């Protein structure tokens, strides 16, 4: 009888892939800087196309590039466990990493916290946080050296998530400001384990300097999160004491933290460890992704000033001059901005690598895949595949998403998945779209953006859970008349 890893290797014997050696697999290919490693990964996806196998230590990873296979992997119920490397996030109970069986209940109970009515009620919060961010940026006006706009968007999106989903105002809190850089650094340490087989062992990892650094960063984050969590818990207890909740009130959708604190499993509240895991997940997933994505959007607008002018014209035509009055209706009317966001997410999807694990034998295309095999999807190379996006796949062209040009009948639905796909897609995609639209609108109302970077420059992309740029999202800002 074959062991799980032997049967995983055996089924893949005829599938093409790079040279692999005992114990290390193909990880020798990934030595060097993060930028080089990500470059090699992307090159492999481009070279092998449809499907190839990659051995990471003793793990067999099936890499998928074909939208049909990706759709199967993301939607089939027996592929809904997360890949082994999500364990490195150390968020075992949060939505992103949890086991499929636990996840089903979590997702069902947390979905209402992202319903349309709750999101619309966040617009004023997002607007206030964006205005604060733009006001902070005044010190960068007309500077000779460009600055990395990510520093500002990271603080802004963290404040947004805390104020909306966690009901906690952390504006200008120095502890919280520290946390932004901390989350970014933690992501970089966690993702560095993926292509370094020596760090798969928790024991070896705990002996490294990176681990110690991670513990320190986590302790800082814990202080902020605990203040929020225990503060809100006490408030709810006081409210309950003053006015006990009736059945109807209890069933009303609440914001994320309240929904979590009311969540019950078999009549019992969740363990504190589970609640904390959910909180870290939502803070990381909600702020890191949106901050990086919006930084890419601002960089693209700075690079393509004709596109920026069109977005600005649309803003003026909807809001007139002066401070914009943002509502669900006006934001929905910003259709050109939406195309710009979609096109940026095509070229620079901030969650570029996602993975699943087969839970039982499953057929993917013409291959029978046993249980325990990791499936890896590279959203960045999928979105730049010339067979799916044409010869100009690498060119930034928001009109690609003009409803007159975009043909949903010929474009495979899984050729564009910036928010993932299937049941474990992004729970916050509408939240993220609102937040990004509002930040960009506030930025462009006040500033005209430019950058020394050009479309032909290499941005030095790398993977650190989210997509990173070596050059930084460097822009200049000039106040509009
Ligand atoms: C531009 C913004 C965003 C992008 C590009 C993005 C992207 C993604 C992707 C690709 C996934 C799937 C991960 C996988 O398959 O393993 C995901 C999942 C998730 N995202 Fe987002 N996300 C964004 C914003 C947000 C926001 C604002 C929140 C919350 C406030 C959020 C919370 C989550 C959660 C909790 C999951 C796990 C869902 C589950 O498995 O049930 N994301 N996101």
UniProtKB/TrEMBL annotation:
Keyword Cell division annotated: no
Pfam families: p450
Keyword match Endoplasmic reticulum: yes
Gene Ontology terms: cellular component: endoplasmic reticulum membrane
Keywords in alphabetical order: Endoplasmic reticulum, Heme, Iron, Membrane, Metal-binding, Microsome, Monooxygenase, Oxidoreductase, Signal
Compartments, record wording: Endoplasmic reticulum membrane; Microsome membrane
InterPro entries, A to Z: Cyt_P450, Cyt_P450_CS, Cyt_P450_E_grp-I, Cyt_P450_sf, Cytochrome_P450_Monoox
Membrane topology designation: Peripheral membrane protein
Positions of heme binding: 426
Gene Ontology molecular function, alphabetical: heme binding; iron ion binding; monooxygenase activity; oxidoreductase activity, acting on paired donors, with incorporation or reduction of molecular oxygen
Record-linked PROSITE patterns: CYTOCHROME_P450
Superkingdom to which the source organism belongs: Eukaryota
Cofactor(s) essential for the protein: heme
Function noted in UniProt: May be involved in the metabolism of insect hormones and in the breakdown of synthetic insecticides.
Family stated for the protein in its record: Belongs to the cytochrome P450 family.
Protein's name in the database: Uncharacterized protein
Organism: Anopheles epiroticus
